Amino acid sequence: MPEVEKINPYGGDRRSKDRQVQSMFDNIAPAYDMMNHLMTGFLDRYWLRCLVKEAASVKPLRIVDLATGTGDVAFALARRLPEAAVTGLDLSEGMLDKAREKAAGSDAARNISFVQGDCLATGLPDACADVVTIAYGVRNFADIAAGYREMMRILRPGGKLCVLELSAPTGKLTGVLYRLYAGKVIPAVGQMLSHDSRAYSYLPESVAVVPSGGAMLSMITDAGFVRARFCRFTFGVCTLYTASKPL
Fold first, then answer.
1. Which of 35, 141, 159, 195 fits a 20 to 30 Å CA distance from 188?
2. Cα 217 to Cα 106, 177, 236, distances in angstroms
3. Between 185 and 83, whose confidence is greater?
């Protein structure tokens, strides 16, 4: 079991990890978008463009965005691929409420449907997606391997997987600076803006131990994916993984 699966948002809370994650994102939904921009110095917008470019490269008509949150990935995909049908799925109704608010009156949202569900058991049909995307969600899974198996199931043969995930820099200087920033600044600002004393402490704790690079690729290929590769951004703070379902 990867170490990240043992880390829960609320420590001694006896609820399962998925229930704690659901509660955490319900709590921080109002501040989530602003916190993402602030804690990444707005670099999350660049990382999102990279994810969308990879997803769009296969000209998909059916996309499933897992852990869609407030819908930023789904909206970006819909703008880039106006003919595609996008399903945004998330465990947290609080996050989905924010996504639906943003969708109201938006032309980009006309082909997006937001649904509540578990990324490990989506309830979606087999082979229903040309592309599956997920941004910053894998480290919150109670069972990452099961999550990748579910992604494999809902992808059509030849379909593409795009995973964007935070990662901890390994360089001597960048590693020290990142640990200082993630361990001190992010929790302090997160508590002030989100009013959840644990959510933005859980974030750096989970990032520090989530599988990354080759270790994450191994989990992806163990689920049956092929042509798996990764690209690191911004001194290793974020990593994009791509792979394909065999024909």
1. 141
2. 36, 26, 15
3. 83
